[in-house]
Amino acid sequence: MKIDAAVLGGVGFSSFIEGSAKIVNTPYGDVGVYIIELNDKTIAIVPRHSGAVEHVPPHMINYRANIWAIKELGVEKIIATNSVGTMKGHNIGSFVIPDDFIDLTKSRISTFYDKNTIHVDMTEPYCPQISKCLMDTLEKKGLDYTRGTYVCTEGPRFETRAEIKMMSMIGDIVGMTGLPEVVLARELELCYASICTITNQACGLTENKITADEVVVELGTTQDILLEVLTDVIDCIPATRECECMNATQGARL
């Protein structure tokens, strides 16, 4: 069975899923993957936060297992969905297509190469083909979006005012799940791009404290729109890869 693309789903994404998960065995653990048909395309959905417990927090997600499972299924293209806070005053409910990242995580294993050394190039970390499809789709639908730098923190706590003040000088949005996914995908020469939903203003941008409830509520209002976008994006992605993602390890080995 040929699978056209994979979607890495974040908080609230489970509402899109029906039926039982296919269990994919990987060297890093088992992963539950939902295989669905969408507009004559076969899609693999990996919900990041699903596990033996009700909700896996961002710092405990088995990122290596998730990306390896997608590769194991023969999938070459990944669309990640992320909920993020804005550090630049984006409208709540709007979207950001990241074009770069800054990794401020602390304890996550961010490589498959524990013994052999691979230095993959991250000059353009997100697949340009998929990113273009995301932007084209949002433009056609008249949806508010921009590009920007994604800053990934360890979590599960939200950031402090001082941290946001510092990070706003180097990035545009802040989240907890975008890394090390994008790096792991590059090491396996997979195409990876992300669509980020702005769910809240980052700490210090308003007088209100940040709560997990407001994130979930905002995602609930945008999930139908997000599904429509993903459906059109998957139709848009070219069958043949013409990006450099598939050559990521060439010249990278020591």
TrEMBL record:
<feature type="binding site">
    <location>
        <begin position="200"/>
        <end position="202"/>
    </location>
    <ligand>
        <name>substrate</name>
    </ligand>
</feature>
<keyword id="KW-0808">Transferase</keyword>
<dbReference type="InterPro" id="IPR035994">
    <property type="entry name" value="Nucleoside_phosphorylase_sf"/>
</dbReference>
<dbReference type="InterPro" id="IPR000845">
    <property type="entry name" value="Nucleoside_phosphorylase_d"/>
</dbReference>
<dbReference type="Pfam" id="PF01048">
    <property type="entry name" value="PNP_UDP_1"/>
</dbReference>
<keyword id="KW-0328">Glycosyltransferase</keyword>
<comment type="similarity">
    <text>Belongs to the PNP/MTAP phosphorylase family. MTAP subfamily.</text>
</comment>
<protein>
    <recommendedName>
        <fullName>Probable S-methyl-5'-thioinosine phosphorylase</fullName>
        <ecNumber>2.4.2.44</ecNumber>
    </recommendedName>
</protein>
<keyword id="KW-0660">Purine salvage</keyword>
<feature type="binding site">
    <location>
        <position position="177"/>
    </location>
    <ligand>
        <name>phosphate</name>
    </ligand>
</feature>
<dbReference type="GO" id="GO:0005829">
    <property type="term" value="C:cytosol"/>
</dbReference>
<feature type="binding site">
    <location>
        <position position="176"/>
    </location>
    <ligand>
        <name>substrate</name>
    </ligand>
</feature>
<comment type="function">
    <text>Catalyzes the reversible phosphorylation of S-methyl-5'-thioinosine (MTI) to hypoxanthine and 5-methylthioribose-1-phosphate. Involved in the breakdown of S-methyl-5'-thioadenosine (MTA), a major by-product of polyamine biosynthesis. Catabolism of (MTA) occurs via deamination to MTI and phosphorolysis to hypoxanthine.</text>
</comment>
<feature type="domain" description="Nucleoside phosphorylase">
    <location>
        <begin position="22"/>
        <end position="218"/>
    </location>
</feature>
<feature type="binding site">
    <location>
        <begin position="48"/>
        <end position="49"/>
    </location>
    <ligand>
        <name>phosphate</name>
    </ligand>
</feature>
<dbReference type="InterPro" id="IPR010044">
    <property type="entry name" value="MTAP"/>
</dbReference>
<dbReference type="GO" id="GO:0017061">
    <property type="term" value="F:S-methyl-5-thioadenosine phosphorylase activity"/>
</dbReference>
<feature type="site" description="Important for substrate specificity">
    <location>
        <position position="212"/>
    </location>
</feature>
<comment type="subunit">
    <text>Homotrimer.</text>
</comment>
<feature type="site" description="Important for substrate specificity">
    <location>
        <position position="159"/>
    </location>
</feature>
<dbReference type="GO" id="GO:0019509">
    <property type="term" value="P:L-methionine salvage from methylthioadenosine"/>
</dbReference>
<comment type="pathway">
    <text>Purine metabolism; purine nucleoside salvage.</text>
</comment>
<dbReference type="GO" id="GO:0006166">
    <property type="term" value="P:purine ribonucleoside salvage"/>
</dbReference>
